[in-house]
Every structure is written in structure tokens, then in C-alpha cells.
Amino acid sequence: MLRHLIATLILFTSTGLHAAELIHHNSEALEPLNFPFSEAVQVGDTLYLAGQLGNVPGTPNLVPGGVEAQTRQTLTNIQATLERFGSDLQHVAKCTLFLQDIKDWPAVNKVYQEFFSKPFPARSALAASGLALGAAVEIECIAVVK
Is there a domain that residue 91 lies in? Predict the structure, then answer.
């Protein structure tokens, strides 16, 4: 019995079982904005992006032009964030979309398909009031690092 216990302990300690390391990513452009969250967190080969808005990069200013312009800028920001931290749009596994007004669904979908094509990432979408900066749309993604 003691031999089995020792063998089991050796097996588990030699396989390198340990807690996954979290790597917090932030770009220099966002540091002056002093947001209380990481731009992305990497666990193993998985990259979790914070919700992105249609803001001009490095500023808290939303792009003008309404929901389509904000969605396009949001996805452009996501694309840049993914590439900065070792991934790209083709490696996105899941997106969650937050819409200030669910009636904007068709306009958001139109722009979304400019960035993603079949096979599409898994996706959830919901209406949410009070998005940061008064945004019309916020999108967060989970991706695989290349």
C-alpha cells in the first residue's frame, strides 16, 4: 500500500501539475488612461480580451458616425489587440456582444461579417444599458494564441 502511495505521489509531482500562470497584457498606449483592468489576460494558449469599445486608440473618445462606425472601430481595436498579443481574428473562439439597443442588431451583424467569415466564432449577444463612455456596442473575445 505504501509503495502505491509513493508511486502515485511521484507520478503527480513529476508530471508538472501546477496552477496555470496568468499573464496580464497591457499596451503602452492605454497606460495613461489608467483603466482598472488588463487589456488581455493569457492563460496557457488562451487569450481573454477585455471588452473593447469603438474608441480612437489611446483615447477615451468614441469615433463619430453611430453604431456601424463604432462597431467597425471596436473590431479594428480587437484585431490590433489580438495581433499585439500573439493571435488574430482567425483564432477567435468566442465573442460576446453588448448592444446599447437591441434594434442595432442588423447593423452590428453587417459590420461583424466584414471581420469574421465562416466558420464563425461562437457568439452571444445581449442588450445592456449603461455601456462605458456611452458606447453603442462593446465586444469581448476569447482567442487562441498562434
Answer: yes
CATH of the domain at 49: 3.30.1330.40
Residue 71 reports pLDDT greater than 70? yes
Whether residue 6 is contained in a domain is answered as: no
Taking 90 as the threshold, does the pLDDT of residue 70 lie above it? Answer: yes
Alpha-carbon torsion, ordered 38, 72, 127, 130, to 10 deg: 60
- C-alpha dist (Å) from residue 10 to 3, 6, 18, 91, 142: 10, 6, 14, 37, 35
Interval 15-43 mean pLDDT: 80
Domain count of the chain? 1
Q: How far is CA 55 from CA 62, 66, 78, 91, in A?
A: 4, 12, 11, 23
Task: Report the run of H or E that residue 47 belongs to, with start and end.
Answer: strand 46-49
- Whether the Cβ atoms of residue 50 and residue 139 lie closer than 8 Å to each other: no
pTM of the model: 0.84
Provide the domain limits for residue 89.
20-144
Query: Quick check: is 11 in a domain?
Result: no
